[in-house]
Design goal:
Elements lengths: L3 E4 H10 L2 H11 L6 H20 L6 E7 L6 E9 L6 E9 L4 E3 L6 E4 L6 E2 L1 H15 L10 E7 L20 E4 L3 H11 L6 H8 L13 H6 L9 H19 L3 E7 L5 H14 L4 E5 L2 H10 L5 H4 L2 E3 L11 E6 L16 H5 L4 H8 E8 L13 H10 L3 E7 L9 H11 L16 E4 L3 H14 L3 E5 L18 E3 L2 E3 L28 E2 L1 H4 L4 E8 L3 E4 L2 E4 L17 H16 L2 E9 L2 H10 L16
Parallel strand pairs: 4-8, 8-9, 10-14, 10-15, 11-12, 11-13, 13-14, 16-24, 17-20, 17-21, 21-24
Antiparallel strand pairs: 1-2, 2-3, 3-4, 5-6, 6-7, 18-19, 22-23
Protein name: AAA+ ATPase domain-containing protein
Pfam family, one: SLFN-g3_helicase
Organism: Micromonospora parathelypteridis
Length: 634
């Protein structure tokens, strides 16, 4: 179940006897979610109002799904009401976003972003927010049949009067984006009566909660259409804020003739690349001057193949961070720097002539200078190579030093790893990246975690899923040699564990036999059977992930420790150039990347026996039924 479920009468009783917050907190903890003081305050102040309104309208039997978790994400909706349409007798659902705001205005004349009193930074217009939820649910839940007539949306600002949020009404409302204030309570109650009959909503709630879930739209599968035709991705909350901030910054930079940068930070699967492609697609369709750049050969080459398919113009939109050494200031309107944690000190490499290398500018200066609106999307825990320096602090400080205003957006939601925020937090604690301690994974019903006793067991499990329920890949830390192909064109099985041996992914861009070139290991079906490294896995996702934890990361005395001497990565072998502390961080970040590529499950195998035992003790899962997915034709 993805929500706390009760009738309106039941919710009212919990509010009256003072146990509402306690019950919701306990349920959130059972589901692997922490609860902030702000959430508790919100529950205590908003949910009793909603419950009383439903009771006052005679709708005490309407079912209320509190903190409903959207399928395949960690995003939770305040409430979904389930009942029966009084006119047709059909199921009827209403998504409700509860706001405690008492004062809000348009953010710099935007009709999608709002400034809220005592809240830092812009927020998404609540009508847009709830409309996005409705679009997302209609897209993913089979029970709705892609029929918007069953699902409605409303934002309820129960503390506000109209004059203090007047700007919010400037945006035309739809049946999925209506706004009600406390001053309009009478209209709100009439709206509830128009949507629900005074009968039990138990059966409609059953159908909603047990609905099949359509598979998520894979980024690369829709990339070409995103650039050529229309938006195929639904952005939610902070994702939509980031998108609107970029589009807003473009207009402001043009009218005010002043540069502005946007920095978007988020963990794996938080939607950074979806935001990047959404912005790129909108601007490309408008024939605006925009480029997309990364520091990853695999990611850029894959985007050229998939997103730029059939169009040399679209392929030319995808560049590398080191492509702009000779660029003039403000050459283009927008530069989208995806995977910006891979920004380096400068763009020179071993092929750069010495004369140019000696006068090379900082790479950040080149990127910021190039566009009127440079956009950086990054995850600070994905810095995996010495010399990579992309972080919110570094980029913001550099931009401000150049006199460029900076907007920062943090993405908190999880769209990879089955939408399991709990799994991402578990990985962070396991690796000690945010100061946490390793904890037991008991499962959250959204993401499958297993520990294999052998590489053969791990590969067999993944092979079964590769054949029946999606994509699967194996990856590993860089703890084995990496040989060139044999003269006969076959790959050397360098990753050897006992009697089991498999090759690394192809090192070059050209295929070797059936094995795809390095850039396409994660996306070509023939990538299964080779072991991927962090550079071919980073930026990509697949349904099922197998991760081999090599001898560079072992469990000792109840926690994981790194051993740099076990790494085969030449860039971190020299203690003179890279200190032990940085190597420790890079190795942990490497496994953070590998452990967060899977969308439905991860299988762990550690070569060190003590580490395997350590992981077995941490992963104690009661297996729950997998989410049911519809199979779509085509």
């Amino acid at each position: 179940m993805s929500a706390y479920r009760t009738s309106a009468a039941g919710l009212s009783r919990l509010a009256t006897d003072g146990t509402l917050v306690e019950v919701l907190t306990e349920r959130a903890r059972f589901g692997g979610h922490g609860v902030s003081p702000a959430e508790k305050r919100s529950w205590a102040r908003s949910l009793p109002v909603l419950a009383q309104d439903l009771v006052d309208t005679g709708l005490a039997e309407v079912e209320v799904l509190v903190e409903y978790q959207l399928p395949l994400t960690s995003r939770r909706v305040d409430a979904v009401l389930a009942g029966v349409d009084p006119r047709t007798g059909d199921d009827s659902y209403l998504v409700v976003e509860l706001k405690q705001w008492s004062y809000a205005t348009a953010f710099e004349d935007s009709d999608t972003l709002v400034a809220v009193e005592q809240v830092r930074g812009p927020r998404l217009h609540p009508g847009v927010q709830v409309q996005d939820y409705c679009r997302y649910l209609t897209d993913f839940l089979g029970v709705l049949g892609r029929d918007q007539k069953l699902l409605w949306g409303a934002a309820y600002l129960h503390n506000a009067v109209d004059r203090d949020v007047a700007d919010l009404f400037d945006r035309p409302a739809t049946e999925q984006s209506r706004i009600f204030t406390g001053q309009r309570r009478g209209q709100w109650l009439d709206h509830l009566r128009s949507r629900f009959a005074p009968v039990s909503g138990a059966d409609p709630a059953d159908r909603f909660l047990t609905s099949t879930v359509r598979p998520s739209r894979h980024l690369l599968a829709y990339a070409a259409a995103e650039l050529k035709e229309r938006s195929h991705f639904i952005l939610l909350d902070e994702q939509h804020v980031a998108y609107e901030l970029v589009m807003h910054a473009i207009e402001r930079a043009r009218t005010a003739n002043h540069k502005r940068a946007v920095v978007v930070a988020g963990g794996p699967g938080s939607g950074k690349s979806v935001i990047a492609l959404s912005v790129l697609g909108e601007l490309a369709r408008q024939n605006r001057s925009v480029l997309h750049a990364t520091g990853s050969r695999s990611f850029t080459q894959t985007l050229r193949r998939y997103a730029g398919r059939g169009s040399t113009r679209l392929q030319s939109l995808f560049k590398y961070f080191n492509s702009f050494m000779d660029a003039e200031p403000n050459d283009i309107e927008v530069l989208i720097c995806d995977e910006a944690h891979r920004v380096r000190e400068n763009s020179a490499n071993r092929y750069t002539p010495k004369a140019r290398r000696d006068v090379a500018r900082p790479q950040l200066e080149e990127l910021i200078s190039l566009a009127r609106v440079p956009v950086f999307l990054l995850d600070e825990h994905q810095v995996v190579k010495p010399g990579e320096l992309g972080s919110v602090e570094v980029i913001s400080a550099f931009a401000e030093k150049l006199g460029v205003d900076v907007d920062v957006v943090s993405l908190h939601d999880q769209f990879r790893c089955g939408g399991s925020e709990a799994y991402e937090e578990w990985v962070l604690d396991l690796l000690g990246l945010d100061g946490g301690e390793p904890s037991v994974w008991s499962g959250d019903g959204r993401f499958d975690v297993r520990v294999a006793e052998s590489p053969e067991e791990m590969e067999a499990y993944l092979a079964e899923r590769q054949g029946t329920s999606g994509t699967a890949r194996m990856s590993a830390g860089y703890c084995w040699p990496w040989s060139d192909p044999r003269p006969d064109g076959t790959l050397v099985p360098d990753v050897t564990i006992g009697d089991w041996a498999r090759p690394w992914n192809v090192r070059s861009e050209r295929s070797v036999g059936e094995a795809p070139g390095s850039a396409f290991w994660a996306t070509d079906p023939n990538g299964f059977g080779q072991v991927g490294c962090v550079y071919t896995a980073q930026g990509f996702e697949y349904d099922w992930s197998g991760v081999i934890i090599g001898p560079d990361l072992v469990a000792r005395d109840g926690r994981l420790v790194t051993r740099r001497e076990e790494s085969k990565d030449s860039s971190i072998r020299s203690r003179k150039s890279v200190g032990d502390g940085e190597v420790d961080r890079l190795i942990r970040n490497t496994y953070k990347v590998l452990l967060t590529r899977g969308m439905r499950g991860t299988v762990l195998y550690a070569t060190d026996p003590e580490t395997r035992e350590f992981l077995r003790d941490l992963v104690r899962v009661r297996r729950a039924p997998e989410i049911r997915f519809e199979v779509e034709a085509g």
